[in-house]
Amino acid sequence: MLSLGPNAVAPGAVRPAGVSEPIEPTGRQAPRRLPSEHPPPVSSPDARPLIAVTTSEIRDSKAVTPTPEGEPPRHEMALGLKYLYAIEAAGGVPVVVPPLRAASLHPLLGRVSGVCLSGGPDLDPESYGERRHARTGPVESQLDAFELAFARAADARGLPILAVCRGLQLLNVARGGTLHQHLPDVVGEGVSHRQHEAGAKSTHWVTLAPSSRLSQILLRRRTKVNSFHHQSIATLGAGLTVTSRASDGTVESIEAVDRDFVIGVQWHAECLVERTGQAALFRAFVDSARRFDEAPARSERVDRELQAISAPTGPPAMNGARDGNLVGA
Fold first, then answer.
1. CATH class, 48-58+73-128+137-309 region
2. Residue 268 annotated in active site
3. Is 165 one of the catalytic residues?
4. Is the pLDDT of residue 155 over 80?
């Protein structure tokens, strides 16, 4: 089951601009709409690109307080709504991605124009060839495997990618990098990387590389950020470069040198969008997705993929991330 609590959203119906009701599921005939009610075509300068957003957290039914008269308890997926609000405010339409069968990866990626890799729990260290540290938190190995496959497939397609917190770490691992499993063992505790304050409050400074794409977007050399992590990048993945560090040397952001827009930030930028620079990051991401949509090769590739897709065989069994049909099972 997918959580519909106050801080979570289920990957169900999506309401594109100009459509007041949910998209009808496959097999049901949608109500006839007037031409003016249809979303604008991709070629329109007003088109709002679809952005796939991963959900990285699974909540055990025992840890979730059931809503009275609601659904029966079961494994649920959760995602902070601020990712979705930040993307929508920047001009995109967010679509939440659950763990899917491998066969669904490419049909999905053929329909979206960008990918946001969200935050969440620690990655399984086996995904980058290391043994578990005593301070590594709970992991969901099969969910990690799906999201790594999803990130690699999106990267291979040239989709714009914005990676946040765990998402930055996952992007690095997807490109062959590794992580420090417990940051205080490496840099001490001079900088608090796991703050107790709310996400809207920034607690430490990072220094940006002046030539980086991120610095040009934020229009500054230093910025103050929030911090909710105890792991960080150890070795960089292929084609990535460090674009900012904290005063203790911790990697705080990365970007791909071989792509137009592949940016990862260790802080939770979605909680800071009331600040001009962080809002600009989401706008730059959505603008890149819009350009990707408008590329002639994109529409030709999507047409070919839509013709090749067979009829759906039904949704995967949602037994948390332990479904044997998931990628990596």
1. alpha beta
2. yes
3. yes
4. yes
Residues 6+ apart with CB under 8 A from 32: none
pTM, to two decimals: 0.76
Instruction: Give 70-105 as a DSSP string.
Output: SPPP--EEE--HHHHHHHHHTT-EEEEE---BGGGH
- Give the residue among 193, 3, 132, 28 at the shortest CA–CA distance from 11: 3
Q: What share of the chain is helix, strand, coil (3-state, %, to 5)?
A: 30, 20, 50
Beta-strand relationship, 240-246 and 204-208: antiparallel
**Residue 262 main-chain phi, psi, to 5 deg:** -135, 100
The pair of three-digit structure tokens given for residue 99, joined into one six-digit string: 């763990």
- Alpha-carbon distance 190 to 101, whole Å? 43
Contact 249, 289 (CB under 8 A): no
Measured distance CA(319)–CA(130) in Å, rounded: 28
The catalytic position among 75, 76, 147, 165 is: 165
> Residue 241 in 3-state DSSP?
strand
Sequential DSSP letters for 251-291: EEEEEETTSSSEEEESS-GGG-TTSHHHHHHHHHHHHHHHH
Catalytic pick among 180, 193, 204, 268: 268
Among 76, 147, 252, 270, the active-site one is 270
Instruction: Provide the pLDDT for residue 68.
Output: 75
pLDDT value of residue 329: 37
Give domain limits for the chain: 48-58+73-128+137-309
Helix (H) or strand (E) holding 174: helix 166-174
Q: Are 201 and 136 in contact (CB under 8 A)?
A: no
Mind listing the pLDDT tens digit for each residue in 291-329? 999 887 665 555 555 454 443 443 333 333 333 334 443
Q: What tens digit of pLDDT does each residue of 101-154 get?
A: 889 999 999 999 999 999 988 999 999 999 888 888 788 888 899 999 999 999
